[in-house]
């Protein structure tokens, strides 16, 4: 591999060679299937969120919808801006130089991977924090959480993710073509680029920190729901409804936590390991060309695992709309009912109160009519 310094841009230009044998049995159908599935799922989520957002007037519901819609939009653009390039490389017999004659496409791909990867993780953390505040401190949430704050948070997340991804373009860090030559990402091995280790470690640390925040907030939410559910134990209809809502929401949050851990932990942990050992996936090209030694077999295993890790991270873009929304179309309604119930202003309580008031008014009106009838 050679490194070209075009102005301040740090991007490693791959040696043009055919790696069809290194790719194993994976065909072009695999990235096509992932792209179609991701686009369909996130598009359905966006349509559902848009329809629901236009109908909602409660700011709590709108904030939740904004987070869900932003995550779906981020995952959708992440699929649309990167998957066509991967498919093109597969169709070009895994020869990156066939489609990247200028050498700038690798930097573009790396920026997209970094931006949409970080933004998806940060959005998941922001949603987890919003849920935790709504459940554990509902009165503060109702008084201080506004839709404008949600919009500002989303803008800050997108801006930070994009500006961080541009650091290699400014000369800090480096993007390079990764084995088997179908994608580009942060360089983890030895590099002449300034601040490459800092950039790579920062990405991994930010990702792990985001995962920890998401998991911690979801645990707090689950704990708050269980405590509230215990205080409402009884045989009444509202108590049974609370138990059902708590069970469904806890299962939902556990599913979200499992998906995040399975999809992102392997890549982030492996990045730190490769940075520490100063190993890059670029070495996989020569290793697969000269197999045989035990050291090469170990590196082969790391190469396969690294490729699997990035595919798992890409799989998260497909699973997000399903675990957050599509598997349970009524998740929003359930969450808002529960959040309102926590703050003692649930829709059911309001309806029951209004029904009782109507019955009382009717009784008073009937009593007045009886009292007036003798005089008539």
TrEMBL record:
It is found in: Cell membrane. GO terms for cellular component: plasma membrane. The keyword Magnesium does not apply. Keywords: Cell membrane, Disulfide bond, G-protein coupled receptor, Glycoprotein, Membrane, Phosphoprotein, Receptor, Transducer, Transmembrane, Transmembrane helix. Residues 41-324 form the G-protein coupled receptors family 1 profile domain. The keyword Cell membrane applies. One of its GO terms (molecular function) is prostaglandin E receptor activity. Interacts (via C-terminus) with MKLN1. PANTHER family: G-PROTEIN COUPLED RECEPTOR FAMILY 1 MEMBER (PTHR11866), PROSTAGLANDIN E2 RECEPTOR EP3 SUBTYPE (PTHR11866:SF10). This is Prostaglandin E2 receptor EP3 subtype. GO terms for biological process: adenylate cyclase-activating G protein-coupled receptor signaling pathway; inflammatory response; intestine smooth muscle contraction; negative regulation of gastric acid secretion; phospholipase C-activating G protein-coupled receptor signaling pathway; positive regulation of cytosolic calcium ion concentration. Gene3D superfamilies: Rhodopsin 7-helix transmembrane proteins (1.20.1070.10). Its main location: membrane. The chain crosses the membrane at residues 28-51, 63-87, 107-129, 154-173, 197-222, 250-276. It comes from the Eukaryota. It is a multi-pass membrane protein. InterPro entries: GPCR_Rhodpsn, GPCR_Rhodpsn_7TM, Prostanoid_rcpt, Prostglndn_DP_rcpt, Prostglndn_EP3_rcpt.
